[in-house]
Amino acid sequence: xxxxxxxxxxxxxxxxxxxxxxxxxxxxxxxxxxxxxxxxxxxxxxxxxxxxxxxxxxxxxxxxxxxxxxxxxxxxxxxxxxxxxxxxxxxxxxxxxxxxxxxxxxxxxxxxxxxxxxxxxxxxxxxxxxxxxxxxxxxxxxxxxxxxxxxxxxxxxxxxxxxxxxxxxxxxxxxxxxxxxxxxxxxxxxxxxxxxxxxxxxxxxxxxxxxxxxxxxxxxxxxxxxxxxxxxxxxxxxxxxxxxxxxxxxxxxxxxxxxxxxxxxxxxxxxxxxxxxxxxxxxxxxxxxxxxxxxxxxxxxxxxxxxxxxxxxxxxxxxxxxxxxxxxxxxxxxxxxxxxxxxxxxxxxxxxxxxxxxxxxxxxxxxxxxxxxxxxxxxxxxxxxxxxxxxxxxxxxxxxxxxxxxxxxxxxxxxxxxxxxxxxxxxxxxxxxxxxxxxxxxxxxxxxxxxxxxxxxxxxxxxxxxxxxxxxxxxxxxxxxxxxxxxxxxxxxxxxxxxxxxxxxxxxxxxxxxxxxxxxxxxxxxxxxxxxxxxxxxxxxxxxxxxxxxxxxxxxxxxxxxxxxxxxxxxxxxxxxxxxxxxxxxxxxxxxxxxxxxxxxxxxxxxxxxxxxxxxxxxxxxxxxxxxxxxxxxxxxxxxxxxxxxxxxxxxxxxxxxxxxxxxxxxxxxxxxxxxxxxxxxxxxxxxxxxxxxxx
Length: 696
Prior knowledge:
Layout: H1 16-27, H2 32-36, E1 42-45, E2 62-74, E3 81-87, E4 92-97, H3 101-107, E5 113-118, E6 120-123, E7 126-130, E8 133-136, E9 146-149, H4 154-158, H5 163-176, H6 186-191, H7 197-205, H8 210-242, H9 253-262, H10 269-282, E10 289-294, H11 300-313, E11 317-321, H12 325-339, E12 346-349, H13 355-367, E13 372-375, E14 389-395, H14 402-409, E15 417-422, H15 428-434, E16 439-443, E17 454-459, H16 463-475, E18 479-483, H17 491-508, E19 514-517, H18 523-534, E20 540-543, E21 556-561, H19 569-576, E22 587-592, H20 598-609, H21 613-624, H22 650-666, H23 676-685
Parallel strand pairs: 4-7, 10-15, 10-16, 11-13, 11-14, 12-13, 14-15, 17-22, 18-20, 18-21, 19-20, 21-22
Antiparallel strand pairs: 1-9, 2-3, 2-5, 3-4, 5-8, 6-7
């Protein structure tokens, strides 16, 4: 299989240097491996010949056999086109070309028999086909059963490269390959009853039947996920088995005093379970790298604090890094308030920390008298040096790059234990893949006293009722969020909509104070506006999704999300989690246009039926694919899957994971002779410039 990487596509008949460069730029196709792993998105049945007289509007594609009757050029300039009449004896259909008019008119001879394939369109009660595929009756391209439809870009189409072009190139490449060394060991192929590599590639591009296609797709999906899991697990095992960490052997005064005397509320069963998992890691003598998942308000911060106290009891320091200044400040206020009576020194370090305070922080970090440092990116600056950093907490970890996180834990001679937290529920298949090199803990219970958020779907006709409900909450002394989309493609339009919404809210609620925040504001002004809301100097916050990772305002009980149809489920859930932080009943209102697609309506209705973040995340994955969740990649690895889907292939992901684990149990570094090809292929596919096994 690795030999395919050495075969440059520019030497393949029909491609050449210029097209090779274009294919590399548009689709990342450089060699035979890339070309043969450019799979069809779907298939069209080319085995049947239709009669022109039988064409109807329900036919997405038709294949016709007949003769051209005439050719005629029509129109001028941009409207110039070649129009032909094509007959099969049952009727006549119009064939239209807008490009390559001279070449086409010279290529086809009236009276000769041809096979046409294309999409029929009806105009003025006449059927026509625009830019069909045309073959002679002797061509193997015609009437050969199932034909793959290959994904393209607009630029490729404009350069005359079609799905059929790809089909031809791939056939040429396949015909040149007589033998292919299978990278998957024979015992694994036998265990899962998988066909060979070359057979799978030939079949997926030229399926003789639906059953054979299914076998080929299973094999290729498994291979893709198996290689991915091997890569992840190999590095994860290397890190676990080679990277020593602190051994925190005992629970001391700080933890016990806080746990038994100052705990703000009884821990949930889920919190206790997670703390037990983390304690086991901290006592292992290996560096912990654990992901903590839990909905907004599930009590992740309290779990993190208890674990930091264990680090302090064992003579080391702790650090918490948050993505924004306002969130870091909020964490600082929460933590320092909780541990003040214990004499624990907590400090805040952000970009706006004054020099005098920074000097104090630097000095206390160095002599060990600063126990917990809370901050933003400022904590990873070179000047920040700990005496002995033992435990690191990274909140909303997907907001930080891999290298940034590495810089933090490299501030200690012994790698500190690392806990990364996210309020975005990650479906199981994604967690196994994206976070495959991390141990995962889940808090799946809310603290006692929290009432589930009531979610309502409302259309424009009921806006007055929605505003009445907001007014009732405001009169009761509560606060409200009004959230607008700000999507890059429509940035100017969205910003105008946001500004208009702000004015409308001010006019509708003249007795109440309104703050206003969006991502294009200067950071200082954005923080000022959000702080007005956090301190109840403002009653309503009109905002974009910048509040997704934002302040904790328990007094905010209402959220209205405008144009909710433009958000994904996971994002809606994340936004909704901004309310329901206190003991009062909270509401989330999804405002939408009445005319929306059935799938969109189904998505919004799901939000009204459940507050289970994991159920929502699974549904979002199935509806929209991995999407932005790829941006949370722990290993810095691109998740470019060619044929497998994390949304629908959960069973195959598990198979691949089990197979990878069993192989690495016998050969952890894939150094045995029978695994040489496999190791080489992985290195070729996942060309890593950084050893991510050493980065949390």
